Amino acid sequence: MYLVDAYVRPAKAEDLPAIIELEKKFGYKIVGVDDRFFRHSFNTDVKIFPVRVISAKSEDEAKSLLRNLSKNEVVIAQAKDVGALRTFSKDRRANIIEIPPKLSPYLDRNQAELFSVGKSMIGFNASNLIDEPRLFWWLSFLTSYAERYALHIVVYSGARRFDEVIHPKVVLNMLIQTGVKKGRALMIIGMSRLEEILKKKASAQI
Amino acid sequence: MYIEVIILAIILALDTIAIVILFVKLFRLKSRPITDSESRTTFLASSYSIRKLKKRYLVFSIISEGNVNKDRIQTSILRAMSKLYGEPFAYAAQPTLIFYDEGRKLGILRVRRESYSQLMASLHIAGKDEEPRILFVPMKTTGSVKKAREIIERLKPDL
Prior knowledge:
heterodimer; A: alpha/beta; 7-stranded parallel sheet; 9 helices; 43% helix; B: alpha+beta; 2 domains; 4-stranded antiparallel sheet; 6 helices; 4 strands; 50% helix; nuclease (chain B); transmembrane helix (chain B)
């Protein structure tokens, strides 16, 4: 089990080396970088992989975005609408799904089954907490929802600057504060599910 | 006959001594003043065996583009805890900066043991509301300030 930060999105390309260096110092072994910044080569021990972020406001838009994806990419899908949420969650090409708080009424048993069909994970971008600390309740809601229906949840830094990189101990305590037991919180940080996905993608490329 | 009387006398004498010691102890506990250095909770804990309020000491380092002073760190921690858990909780947790080395950017934060996890969770949003932005890096947690100071002395300057 390695520490994984599934997504960082630097504001400028020059910020990325500092972010990666800090991630390494904090003990992360695998870091997902926004695909727009991925081409830069780094001389680092941290394994980095490209992450593509797509955002859809309707079912049709979600379908058309999914059609253009290749199977080798790790994809974070931001659903802005219930139709997009349903489409993303049942499709295996969308690996991580970010859900806005306004869609909380739709997170029920049927939606959980769709997540299971698509084998997708629920994502939470911790950088949103910096702008809007009240979203802590949303993280709490998502963790309890994931626990109730045995779904996978991912918390990533989404760092835009070096000072937004999140220390693993901080993530652990954040998850404990949302009501997750320590053992499960450690599993969430370790993200063995994401490791599996990365291995599959790597083997598909070969 | 004589031996029995002597044993009885000894038992009575021991009982009297025990009762006197007990009374003296009780009197001392009730008449003991609360000094400035000793909090009321500690006094109550020692007298009536209530659990003492314990503290945790977090050794941390900060990463920022500019210099940051003590007040900024103290206020940003308190503000972050207030944002996540509300002001009453933040003040009850008593997060206090007890040591900060501006040159090495290392410090020690004291917090009530029950609120340790909340402090750690709020480190992510602490110091991000004004420039220069601060990144708090938790390094080690101890139960005594002495140990925390030892850790600070041992740490390398660049961390």
